[in-house]
Amino acid sequence: MWGSSPTSTKDARATILKSEAIKDPAAPIVVSFSSCGLNSILPEIIKPDISAPGVDILAAFSPVAPIMNSPDDERHVKYSLLSGTSMACPHAAAAAAYIRTFHPEWSPASIKSSLMTTAWPMDHTNDAPGEFAHGSGHINLVTAVDPGLVYEASEGDYIKLLCSFLDDVRVKLISGENIPCPKGFEEGSPKDFNYPSLAAVVEPVTSFTINFNRTVKNVGHANSTYEAKILPDSKVDIKVVPEVLSFKSLNEEKTFTVTVVGKGLPDGSYASSSLIWSDGTQ
Fold this sequence. Notes:
Blueprint: E1 2-3, E2 14-15, E3 57-60, E4 79-82, H1 85-102, H2 108-117, H3 131-134, H4 141-144, E5 149-150, H5 155-163, H6 168-175, E6 208-218, E7 224-231, E8 236-241, E9 244-247, E10 253-262, E11 274-278
Antiparallel strand pairs: 1-2, 3-4, 5-6, 6-10, 7-9, 7-11, 8-10
Helix pairs in contact: 1-2
């Protein structure tokens, strides 16, 4: 776009030229310098959660801060092109705020769920770490507003998750609640935390069977039916019970179990797949 500066003429004009759009089936991809998982603290929770634009982002810049770290560079600007996770984070935060305007009654967990379950799938070809690089996929605000189903989690659920790998003292410091951690059969497992993603650690080269328990809440249409679809992975067999969830009202909840069976994975490797609950409209 070219034109005269409005400070030099009262009749400022600009020309916008037609751009050329090129479809790249591999796009978007995660940039090489982006931080990747595994989650070193709790591998049962896949990190990152989701991907968002973070390369060459034009953003507001402190007018008193130098552009470069060089002491000889005294330039100051109001806007600058920046890259990194620090630029993807405000995109994700703004997306969450946008969804909140449509659903002010939703919890943070529901908003996160809507972003994760409606994300664009990303190509693994040039992205070796897979989900540990891009999470559930690339953020898609058009579909996130109406996810149909959400994975809800309360404050108590998060405290129970903390209790699965921290002692009572640390959990109380983090939560601010003087509630003792559950013991025995009530203790639960971090893999069963009602998170939109599912992950478990298995012994290498050893056959395994893992059960994930999840609950979804209907936030779409009162009368709706969802069918489970699995994107297969040759390394594991996956079964969902029940395969169909039927809802009669809004905010109704249904529970299901995902069973993953494998004959053993090489040390340091992983298998991944996707579970899609579809009502046939998307």
